[in-house]
Design goal:
Blueprint: E1 2-3, E2 10-11, H1 17-22, E3 26-30, E4 33-38, H2 43-50, E5 58-61, H3 64-84, H4 89-92, H5 99-105, H6 115-130, E6 133-140, E7 144-151, E8 154-162, H7 163-176, E9 188-196, E10 199-210, E11 213-220, E12 222-223, H8 230-233, H9 237-247, E13 252-257, H10 264-275, E14 282-286, E15 291-292, E16 297-300, H11 309-316, E17 323-326, H12 332-343, E18 347-352, H13 357-367, H14 371-377, E19 378-390, E20 395-397, E21 411-413, E22 425-436, H15 439-447, H16 451-460, H17 466-475, H18 481-487
Parallel strand pairs: 1-5, 4-5, 12-15, 13-18, 13-19, 14-16, 14-17, 17-18
Antiparallel strand pairs: 2-3, 3-4, 6-7, 6-11, 7-8, 9-10, 10-11, 19-22, 20-21
Length: 491
């Protein structure tokens, strides 16, 4: 029995992989031979299990770090094997079965490796995809756990669970995301993939420690083939026409602004789908890469190794790019590099966290960018929001809304039915205020104008504001006053 330390063993897949992990006898490939790997501390259990097997593999002893690395690789293989069968989730779980019902019907969910825990987590993913959720939240409180889905930008509670069960659910998610089950004191980030009906969905996993336990947020990511077009996003024809005019430029900066969750990344990727072709070298730097695409080169920010937006952008400029997309401008260094790229013959796309188009200019000035650089680099600004659209079950709202200029208009409000999960809303629509730069506004920016003057100038030059777009949706019966106020009718 040889001892080999500090080695990255390659995992070997066998049928008894679950028991091998349990008894610390790990199948591996070493020097082109099949072997079992264990440690001196766990060799007794490993030998007892080895004697029950008919596989004539030699046993190699190793150090704890090498063993743990191999163990994590095998856990990932085990998780992938289990999730390969999630194509049959629909056969196991009725479409209308809620997570609460599943808990009531589950006979024994208190064993971490039992089928009920696996089926429950599978049910969690299935229900989230079935209900069009963008995020799954798993929260630990003092005496219970909570599962919530973010649907159309709003969180809805799906199940309240006993605390001991929520801990096992979180451990299961850690296993399939290749995270450390024993680490509960520091944040962890990972990824996993599920497969339902031959359709694979990538999931970004974020875990943080809270006062009463851990909180998990899982973002369901989309493939490039699923990215909606600009018209599918809901933008009107006037704005789509403006987008296409901007994307015809060979250089300059296009900024998409709005609060978190307003669809900025989706819009940027919709832009990239329009301009993507074999003649162009398109490179992005994102945090995280939310939409995988085969037609563009994508860089994932990794601050642990010094790969930030700014450093990634500097490297991109040495890669002969035609189009660059930076996920977000957060600081002066990134903004300065992006503007220099836009001024030197590159089409630059990025996002900024501001409330409207005019505030974008002030934000860049606050970061420390000179007004003359802003006016000469930016070719267009889009400020956007996602507005929930009323379901067909909507009903008339007879409240007086003359304060919003809706005197005598027929307005509708949410009701709720089975089709919309009793929320009253079904899907979301993007609205925006788009301003294409002209000489008049560039001159104002170069002089260092304020937000109010700039907004008035943009409106004078023909920009339709977000508020005006919301009023149009209300008049068309597409959304409710409550939703319009939530999005920004009073801003």
């Amino acid at each position: 029995m040889k001892k080999i330390i500090d080695t990255d063993f390659q995992p070997h897949k066998i049928d008894q992989i679950e028991d091998c992990i349990k008894y610390s006898l790990l199948p591996a490939i070493f020097n082109d031979q099949y072997v079992f790997v264990s440690t001196e501390e766990k060799i007794i259990d490993a030998l007892n299990f080895y004697n029950k097997l008919s596989l004539p593999y030699n046993i190699i002893l190793t150090d704890k770090d090498s063993f743990d690395r191999l163990n994590n690789k095998l856990l990932e293989i085990k998780a992938q094997n289990e999730l390969q069968n999630t194509t049959s989730i629909e056969d196991e779980i009725e479409e209308e079965l809620s997570l609460d019902d599943f808990l009531k019907n589950g006979l024994n969910i208190l064993e971490e490796n039992s089928a009920p825990i696996i089926k429950f987590v599978n049910s969690l993913f299935y229900q989230a995809i079935n209900k069009r959720a963008s995020d799954i939240h798993i929260e630990t409180h003092e005496s219970f756990g909570l599962i919530r889905f973010r649907i159309d930008g709003v969180l809805f509670t799906q199940a309240t669970i006993e605390k001991n069960i929520i801990n096992l659910v979180i451990n299961r998610i850690k296993v399939i995301s290749n995270l450390d089950i024993s680490e509960k004191r520091t944040p962890q980030d990972g990824r996993t993939q599920i497969k339902i009906a031959e359709h694979a969905t990538d999931i970004r996993v974020s875990i943080i420690p809270t006062y009463f336990g851990e909180k998990v947020v899982m973002r369901l990511l989309m493939e490039s083939s699923e990215i909606p077009t600009l018209s599918e996003l809901g933008f009107n024809e006037e704005i789509i026409k403006g987008f296409k005019t901007l994307l015809e430029h060979s250089y300059g900066m296009i900024l998409v602004t709005g609060p978190t969750g307003s669809g900025k990344s989706t819009t940027l990727h919709a832009f990239l789908q329009i301009i993507s072709n074999p003649e162009k070298n398109i490179i992005t730097v994102e945090d995280p890469v939310e939409y995988k695409s085969n037609s563009i080169n994508q860089i994932q920010v990794n601050s642990k190794v010094g790969l930030t937006f700014a450093s990634g952008l500097r490297s991109i400029l040495r890669q002969d790019p035609d189009v660059i997309m930076v996920g977000e401008i957060r600081d002066k260094e990134t903004a300065t590099t992006a503007i220099q790229a836009a001024l030197t013959g590159h089409l630059m796309l990025s996002t900024l966290h501001t409330n409207n188009a005019s505030a974008t200019i002030s934000r860049l000035m606050d970061i420390g960018i000179e007004p003359f650089l802003i006016s000469s680099s930016i070719i267009g600004i889009l400020s956007q929001r996602l507005v929930r659209v009323l379901c067909d079950c909507k009903e008339k709202d007879y409240t007086d809304y003359s304060e919003y200029g809706l005197d005598g208009e027929i307005i509708y409000k949410a009701k709720g039915c089975k089709k919309c999960n009793f929320t009253g809303y079904n899907k979301r629509k993007a609205i925006g205020e788009l301003f294409i730069m002209n000489d008049y506004v560039k001159e104002l920016i170069a002089k260092g104008t304020n937000d109010i003057e700039l907004k008035q100038a943009m409106i004078k030059e023909g920009m339709t504001t977000l508020k005006e777009n919301l009023i149009i949706m209300l008049k068309n019966g597409e959304t409710s006053i409550k939703e319009a106020i939530r999005v920004g009718l009073r801003d």
